[in-house]
Amino acid sequence: MTSVPERPLEQQITLLELIDRVLNKGVVLTGDVTLSVADVDLVYVGLRVLLASVGTLERLGE
Amino acid sequence: MIYLYAIAEELTGLPDVRGVDGAPLGRRSVEGLDLVVSEHDGAEVAASEEAVLAHARVVEGLVERADALLPARFGRGFRDEAALRDAIEGRAASLRDALAQVRGCVEIGVRVLAAEPAPPPATESGRAYMEARLARSEETERLARELHEPLAALARAATRTVGATPRLLLSGAYLVEPGALEAFRRRVDELEAEHSELTFVSTGPWPPYSFAPGGET
């Protein structure tokens, strides 16, 4: 398993964690104008593709 | 439209980066709170990974320039200055409380993945199936608590989600003081060593996204 390129995987996970936070956490105030759900879903499609490629996440622990 | 990136206290300056869609950053002050914004012609900004990352870069650049900072959620804007002012004024007290909580701390994320779940046993009755399922969810909850509590004890505040997906045992976010960071990381390593069957993914330090007040008013 030493040949597994851990660096890119770690970077992918970090990216996913970051995007998850920016999209789903953070202050929300009332009276704001929000993006339509469809738009945010588009970002998520890209995320899910990335997530699928990180499907080997468990290898990190081995 | 006025797009909001973060709410801060004692902001010393703006980072040398552009905002969403390449817009220049600006500052506003409402009720003693510093707001970091950019102005946009349309009513919305387009959601894209690039835009999300631009938002994140602004927040990241602000962390070291503020005494305390609450990141805003992506894609939130206000029609005009008055709408922005009203939104902040209505929440100023709770925003100040949240800023006091996060001051000086970073957020650490810890996700714990279970091993591949065992195939469900071929049960003969619906009742046996339900009992097996209940036992499994109780076991998940017990294990998640066993992992979360020692980490939460080292943090100023903590949030967790249990069993968000069948394999994702725990999604925790921990607000950690710099002085406790090393002890926190050591505890994660210890828990990982005690649970070799689980996969731990620890990320951060992050700006305190998970400790900024959400949609509820």
Specify the oligomeric state.
heterodimer
* Element-by-element helix/strand order of chain B: EEEHEEHEHEEHE
- Terminal Cα span of chain A: 8 Å
| Mean pLDDT level of chain B | 90
Straight-line distance between termini of chain B: 22 Å
Q: What is the CATH topology classification name of the largest domain in chain B?
A: Alpha-Beta Plaits
How many domain modules of chain A?
Answer: 1
Radius of gyration of chain A: 15 Å
Cα-atom radius of gyration of chain B: 21 Å
Using DSSP, what is the number of strands of chain B? 9
Question: What's this model, at a glance?
Answer:
With 62 residues, chain A is mainly α.
Which keywords apply here?
heterodimer; A: 62 residues; mainly alpha; 2 helices; B: alpha+beta; Alpha-Beta Plaits; five-stranded antiparallel sheet; four-stranded antiparallel sheet
Write a structural description.
The complex is a heterodimer of chains A (62) and B (217). Chain A has one domain (6-22, 35-61). The longest helix of chain A has 19 residues, at 6-24. By secondary structure, chain A is mainly alpha-helical. Chain A is 58% helix and 3% strand. In chain B, strands 1, 2, 3, 4 and 5 form a five-stranded antiparallel sheet that branches. Classes of the chains: A mainly alpha (62), B alpha+beta (217). Chain A binds chain B through residues 13-14, 17-19, 21-36, 39-40, 42-43, 46, 57-58, 60-61, and chain B through 1, 4, 6-7, 43-49, 52-53, 55-56, 59, 70-79, 83, 86-88, 90-91, 95, 98, 109, 113, 115, 192, 198-201, 203, 206, 209-210, 212-215, 217.
Layout of helices and strands:
The complex is a heterodimer of chains A (62) and B (217).
Chain A: H1 6-24, E1 33-34, H2 37-53
Helix pairs in contact in A: 1-2
Chain B: E1 2-9, E2 26-30, E3 33-39, H1 49-63, E4 68-71, E5 76-78, H2 81-102, E6 106-113, H3 126-152, E7 157-162, E8 168-176, H4 181-194, E9 199-206
Antiparallel strand pairs in B: 1-3, 1-4, 1-5, 2-3, 6-8, 6-9, 7-8
